[in-house]
Design goal:
This protein is mainly alpha-helical and 136 residues long. The chain is 46% helix and 10% strand.
Length: 136
């Protein structure tokens, strides 16, 4: 299975709040099924409910790639802004305001690079822990 296939499924799951989008991987065939509570979804196989060959792709929060990652980045790259970021994440729309802050500090691209590396590392570890063999 190619890493990009897992990453695409992970992005689908993580682009919405937890429990809104789901992706399931067939460990035997590598097929992925996308399910959303908001609309269009793939039809799940007949044996989906009673077969453990299907595994759920995690949400970013399941891999500590949400707020925890934000604060890891801030503590290393903009430690003087920790209090401000805590305030930002105390209200709705936090990620947009967080990215505005990073843009104003000239660190938005650094954040994206940090986030991408952390995501790839966490996904590859998740695959290893769950017996999903990756091709590069």
């Amino acid at each position: 299975m190619h890493y990009s296939h897992i990453e695409d499924a992970f992005m689908f799951v993580s682009m919405s709040p937890p429990e809104e989008n789901f992706a399931y991987l067939n460990r035997e065939t590598g097929e992925t099924y996308f399910v959303s509570t908001l609309g269009d979804s793939d039809e799940l196989p007949e044996d989906f409910e009673e077969n453990d060959k299907y595994m759920s792709i995690p949400h970013k929060n399941d891999l500590d790639l949400g707020r925890k990652l934000v604060f890891q980045f801030i503590s290393v790259n903009l430690p003087d802004e920790i209090r401000r970021v805590q305030e930002i994440f105390g209200r709705k729309g936090a990620y947009a305001r967080y990215k505005d802050l990073l843009e104003s500090k000239g660190r938005l691209e650094d954040w994206y690079e940090f986030e991408d590396k952390a995501t790839e590392k966490a996904l590859r570890e998740w695959c290893g822990d769950n017996g999903v063999e990756l091709e590069d």
